[in-house]
Description:
The chain is 23% helix and 35% strand. The chain is α+β, with helices and mostly antiparallel strands.
Amino acid sequence: xxxxxxxxxxxxxxxxxxxxxxxxxxxxxxxxxxxxxxxxxxxxxxxxxxxxxxxxxxxxxxxxxxxxxxxxxxxxxxxxxxxxxxxxxxxxxxxxxxxxxxxxxxxxxxxxx
Length: 113
């Protein structure tokens, strides 16, 4: 089991969600977050001088999947979120030691869905 964490641009959420649904990955948690990457936040020019702005709005997706769904999930996120510019986001793949469905007490891969 793996936990896939993706940080993407907010306007790409619907495209990523559609791409995930196409590969039968329907269970996810979506959170609005702030962050900065290589672009170092927003830079604005004010009266001819560059001023560093705040953090950028991003969307975080947390998706727990069984091993067979790892690569299709990564491919779907990549295809849905890609614009070709800096700031498209990142995907992190973490080992998931345990998953427990609270309603039934099921454990492991079957509890993921």
